[in-house]
TrEMBL record:
InterPro entries: FAD/NAD-bd_sf, Flavin_mOase, Flavin_mOase-like, FMO-like. It comes from the Eukaryota. The keyword Endoplasmic reticulum does not apply. Belongs to the FMO family. Its cofactor is FAD. This is Flavin-containing monooxygenase.
Length: 403
């Protein structure tokens, strides 16, 4: 029997719990969840800033957000979404309801310790040389601190909680309201405002449309290809990136200037592994988490897996695949290469992206067909079925249409 600690009860943590519970003759486990609900980032809260325990609000979901992946391919492969509405792109509340149903169906709530704040994960070496994992947690309600030891640890703390703020010259001089999309919930506060929205990702596109419904004027700023080919309202302008800010005046790279009331930063998120002791030897360099084999397994400590580092994926489907692989590794039915070979593989993957012309910060981005190459790699390594072609084709069509 191997004892496994799982950190986080979002989609990845629940998938891990579901498969660990199905192999109860090999594993016993605990899932630590900081909030009082399952769902991770899909657990919507009206509040922003900090929660009732003084910790940062985890979720970045806004009130009207819908998925940008159809529910029929978004779902875990062995648990389809219920038919509750005709729309393929469901409201975030439907995703949370789905994850709660998944938790109930596979009976994994009994393994979850809610309101458990993970203070530290530390590797401990036994006399035999075996690495164990000491996980220190604090119950946010009772304030009780405890430590438990595990044979393996699965990190599922998400990647949409710690906002990434760009370095913009003069932003400290801006007298108006500066906020990150992590703290955006509804468009009401932007009524009649002059708004600059920076960032051309999915959240920037979606939120800019919402705010344009009530704002006096919206400038949607980014350096990517044009994101709004369809007809846009008269108060909406798509423009290049920001070069500097001088008081209320925002200057753009094409020389245009605009006096703004609000700057909304849809500029993404940083990975946050501050609970990992330095001895875990996990570092983040320019949005690249190292040292990870197959974007998942710690090269030096292969009894640690970190989920959710990749972007532009089918997350629920991919979590399912990654859990299958990692549990086979723990059981010994999949033999990993040596530490040196795993690090060389990770470096080769990174260099392949650079040769493709991708920037270094896209180390875990699954664009340009990389997602299916990755799924083929791990399914071949784990000897299980890859994500079906019909699912791949539909995801590719959606991704192409939205790019």
């Amino acid at each position: 029997m191997l004892r496994v600690g799982v950190i986080g009860a979002g989609a990845a943590g629940l998938s891990a719990a579901r498969h660990l519970a199905a192999q109860s003759d090999h594993f016993n486990f605990v899932v630590y969840e900081q909030t009082g609900e399952v769902g991770g980032t899909w657990y919507y809260r009206d509040e922003v800033g900090t929660d009732e325990f003084g910790l940062p609000i985890h979720s970045s979901v806004y009130k009207n957000m819908r998925t940008n992946i159809p529910k029929n391919i978004m779902a875990f492969p062995d648990f389809p979404f219920p038919i509750k509405e005709n729309c393929c792109f469901v409201h975030h509340s439907e995703v949370l309801s789905y994850l709660k149903d998944y938790t109930k169906y596979f009976d994994v709530a009994k393994f979850i310790q809610f309101h458990s704040y993970v203070q530290e994960v530390r590797p401990v070496t036994k006399d035999t040389g075996q690495i164990l994992w000491n996980i220190s947690t604090k119950n946010l309600v009772t304030k009780v601190i405890k430590q438990e030891v595990f044979d393996a640890v699965i990190i599922c703390n998400g990647r949409f909680t710690k906002p990434k703020y760009p370095d913009i010259q003069g932003i400290e001089s801006f007298p108006g309201w500066v906020l990150h999309s992590h703290d955006y919930r509804v468009n009401d506060p932007f009524k009649g405002k002059q708004v600059v929205i920076l960032g051309g990702g999915p959240s920037g596109i979606d939120i800019s449309r919402e705010i344009a419904e009530v704002a006096e004027q919206v400038l949607f700023s980014h350096n990517l290809d044009k994101k709004h080919p369809e007809k846009v309202p008269q108060n909406f302008t798509e423009i290049c990136g920001i070069s500097e800010i001088n008081g209320p005046v925002v200057k753009f790279m094409n020389g245009h200037q605009f006096e703004a009331d609000v700057i909304l930063l849809c500029t993404g998120y940083n990975f946050d592994y501050n609970f990992l002791h330095p001895k875990c030897n996990v570092s983040v360099k320019n949005q690249r988490v190292v040292p990870l084999y197959k974007h998942l397994i710690h090269c030096e400590f292969p009894t640690m897996a970190i989920f959710g580092v990749q972007s532009l994926t089918l997350p629920f489907q991919l979590f399912h695949q990654q859990v299958l692989l990692f549990l086979k590794v723990l059981r010994g039915s999949v033999k990993l290469p040596s530490e040196k070979e795993m690090k060389e593989d990770a470096e080769a993957d990174f260099n392949y992206r650079i040769e493709m012309g991708l920037p270094a910060r896209y180390a875990h981005k699954m664009s340009n067909g990389l997602l299916w190459k990755y799924d083929d790699d791990i399914s071949r390594l784990g000897d299980f079925q890859p994500i079906p072609k019909i699912v791949r084709d539909q995801f590719d069509n959606i991704s192409y249409a939205c790019s």
